[in-house]
Amino acid sequence: MSAEKEIWVFAEQENGQLAGVVYELLTRGRMLAEKSGFTLCAVLTSADGKPMHQELFNYGAKKIYNVEDDRLETYQNDYFAKVVHELIEKEKPEIVLYGATTIGRSLAPTVAVMGWAGLTADCTELDFDTERQILLQTRPAFGGNIMATIICPDHRPQMATVRPNVFKKERVGENETGEIVDARVDLSGVKERMKRVESVIEEVNTVDLKAADYIVSGGRGLGKSENFKIIEALANALGGAVGASRATVDAGWISHHHQVGQTGKTVCPLVYIACGISGAIQHLAGMQSADLIIAINKDPDAPIFDVADFGLIGDLHRIVPELTKQINELKG
């Protein structure tokens, strides 16, 4: 067992490449470590972790629990859960964080059941109560109608999965150092219930919202599907992507690939422009981490204005085309 209390970030990797959410969790983990006084650590399970160590240190990990085995090259739930569970049982961390990815959503609940630990899924905010020494885990609840802050006062570790693109990722430096613990977990007795036969990368002919610096999203205020053309025109002028609210996707106005929100994609662009979107909690959960939020809505009491940095009250059918025109004129 470690002499110091620790915060662990599961360093999800696939074929030797760290997932983007790992950097986000380490960045947020540094804040939690500063408030709690705990040590920030990464847990890396792979066939060869050495090429990934430097980046984990560069993003703030002070210690890396490194487990290497050829069976850990690609994700297999039984193997990975065995490793993480045994490490937790031995080292007794206070907090364990996972990305709410396909892998994290499979691994975290399995480990929670194995260790009788609590787990809060799909968090959009993490903080630390220094007085009670408790992780504050915030996520949408009751169908996204409220934001609930959940605590785990009685059982350890406190575990949470966090949606990608909720937190910023900020590197500490380029040549940071830390401790590497080469851990050993016997996987010989693990019954392999699943086997990966083939990996297929799906080619989808849509803009990657998660990678876009500028996103222009349309909501029910557009009135009909044809009016998404004014959203597309503004997005094109900015060199950005088209987003959408769940209401417009449910109405069949646009593909679900464009949906932003709790049941869609979580995005973190430089600029997010919400057009005709009221600002329900479900939508805010997917975009409120944007650097700059601009809201366009005819209703001055729309909740979207509570999170917007700039608000334009008026008819989006007049405002959006005018914005597009002026941006194109500036571009020459």
Task: Describe what this molecule looks like in 3D.
- The protein has 332 residues and is α/β, with parallel strands linked by helices.
- It has two domains: 6-182, HUPs (Rossmann fold), CATH 3.40.50; 209-331, TPP-binding domain (Rossmann fold).
- Helix content is 29%, strand content 25%.
- It is built from nine helices and 17 strands.
- The protein has helices spanning 20-36, 50-58, 77-91, 102-115, 228-238, 246-250, 281-284, 304-307, 316-331; strands at residues 6-10, 13-14, 17-18, 39-46, 63-68, 95-99, 119-123, 125-129, 134-141, 146-150, 158-162, 179-182, 214-218, 241-244, 271-275, 292-297, 310-313.
- The strands form four sheets. The chain has a seven-stranded parallel β-sheet, sandwiched between helices.
- A hairpin with a 2-residue loop joins β2 (13-14) and β3.
- α3 (77-91) crosses α4 and α5 (228-238) runs parallel beside α9.
- The model has no long low-confidence stretch (mean pLDDT 89).
